[in-house]
Amino acid sequence: MAETRGRDSRNELRKMALVASPAPAAQAAEAELRQRYEWTDIGDADVIIALGGDGFMLQTLHLMLDRHQIRPVFGMNLGTVGFLMNEWRLDALSDRLQRARAFSVTPLRMDAETIDGERYSSPAINEISLLRETRQTAWIEVSVDGRVVLPELVCDGVMAATAAGSTAYNLSAQGPILPLGSGLIALTPISAFRPRRWRGAILPETAKISFRVVDPVKRPVSAVADQREIRDVSVVNISIDRSIALTLLFDPEHALDDRITMEQFAV
C-alpha cells in the first residue's frame, strides 16, 4: 500500500516525482519506492526525488532547466561519491522531506563562440572548464571585468567553479574549497606550465570572466559546462546567472554546508 505523501510547513500535500539513473542499484531502489509511495509527473510535482550519484543529480538539474520546470530536488545516493546526495533509505521519506534543509544554488552561465562563429549558451552548477583537445598545450588569455589579468596562460586547461562545485573537479585540480553562500567563484588552472607560480584566484561572484583562446586552430580548446561540451572554442565568457535559483534538499544531519566545511579538514 502506498504511503501518504509528505506535507510541507502549511500542512499541504507535497506531490513527489521520482527519477533514477540507469545504474542497477538505482533502478532497484526506484522499483521499491514506486511500490511504497504515490508519485506524479515532474510537471505536476512539488519536489523531485533523484536516485543516483552526483553526475545524475547534475543531469536532473539540467533537465529541469531545459524544460523550465524547476523544482526542489531531494537526492539519495546510489552512485559512487554522492556529495550532492542524501543517504539512501526506503522508509520515512515523507518525514525526511518535512525536516529537510533547503539550499539555494545559483549556476554559472557560459557564453561561448567557436572558431567558425557559432554561439552557444549553457548553465553550469559545478564548473565551467576549458580543456586542450590535442597534445598541444592550450594558450589562453584571461580577463576579469574587462581587464586582462593573464595575457598568456599556458596550460592543460582552466576552470571557474561555484561554491557547490568547488569540492568536485576544482578540488581535484588543487583549487580552493569555497564555503556555501560565500558569494565567491574559484578560478583554477589545470596543470599550468606558465606562469609557473600562478595557482589560481578567488573572485567575487559579481565578476565577469573571459577566456580568449590564443591560436585556437593550432591549439584547439573545448569548453565544458558541467557535462556539456563545446569544441573548438575561441572565446568563452562566464558570469553568475542570477535569473536562476535551484534548490537542493538535505537531511539536517547531512546538510551541504556542513559537508563542504568538513571537506576542508579531510586528510
From TrEMBL:
Chief location category: cytoplasm
InterPro entries: ATP-NAD_kinase_N, ATP-NAD_kinase_PpnK-typ_C, NAD/diacylglycerol_kinase_sf, NADK
Family affiliation: Belongs to the NAD kinase family.
Organism: Sphingomonas abietis
Names of required cofactors: a divalent metal cation
UniProt-annotated location(s): Cytoplasm
Pfam families: NAD_kinase, NAD_kinase_C
One Gene Ontology term of the molecular function aspect: NAD+ kinase activity
Listed EC numbers: 2.7.1.23
Function: Involved in the regulation of the intracellular balance of NAD and NADP, and is a key enzyme in the biosynthesis of NADP. Catalyzes specifically the phosphorylation on 2'-hydroxyl of the adenosine moiety of NAD to yield NADP.
Protein name: NAD kinase
Annotated binding of NAD(+), by residue: 54-55, 126-127, 156, 164, 167-172
Reactions catalysed, as given in the entry: NAD(+) + ATP = ADP + NADP(+) + H(+)
Active-site residues from the entry: 54 (proton acceptor)
Enzyme class: transferase
Keyword entries, A-Z: ATP-binding, Cytoplasm, Kinase, NAD, NADP, Nucleotide-binding, Transferase
